[in-house]
Specification:
130 residues, alpha+beta, four-stranded mixed β-sheet, three-stranded antiparallel β-sheet, 5 helices
């Protein structure tokens, strides 16, 4: 897991007979698939549900000061992305590999108002006011 704690995060898996070699391979793999995540005031723009394999996750935005209410592998991904206030729940499988992949899927599907406006070809005000 690599991230700049400012909205960019990536994940990778490295295998080797030695731990240090496996970690460096994992970091190299993570640097090859970085994604930009919309972070607004330390939280996510909207609720998101994602599934990968047997792992189902739910991410909900939280008000400032709530903290990162997530466990295990999801916490590592969200911390690397720079998300400070979020409510998260994992359902189904607790396999860390599938949880990381489901969390990354959920984060890549997040869209903020600027992304929606650009996709529709309208101004941000028109997105909110219709």
């Amino acid at each position: 897991m690599v991230g700049n704690e400012d909205g960019i995060v990536g994940w990778g898996l490295g295998k080797a007979s030695e731990v240090t070699t496996a970690i460096s391979k994992g970091v190299d793999a993570a640097k090859k698939n970085l994604v930009k995540v919309p972070v607004i005031n330390g939280t996510i723009p909207h609720e998101q549900i994602a599934k990968f394999g047997g792992a189902n996750i739910l991410l909900k935005p939280a008000s400032s000061g709530t903290g990162l209410k997530a466990g295990g592998a999801m916490r590592a991904v969200l911390e690397s992305a720079g998300i400070n206030d979020v409510l998260a729940k994992s359902k189904g499988s607790s396999n860390p590999h599938n949880l990381v992949k489901a969390t990354m899927t959920a984060l890549t599907e997040l869209r903020d108002a600027y992304m929606v406006a650009e996709h529709r070809g309208v101004s941000v005000e028109k997105v909110f006011k219709g």
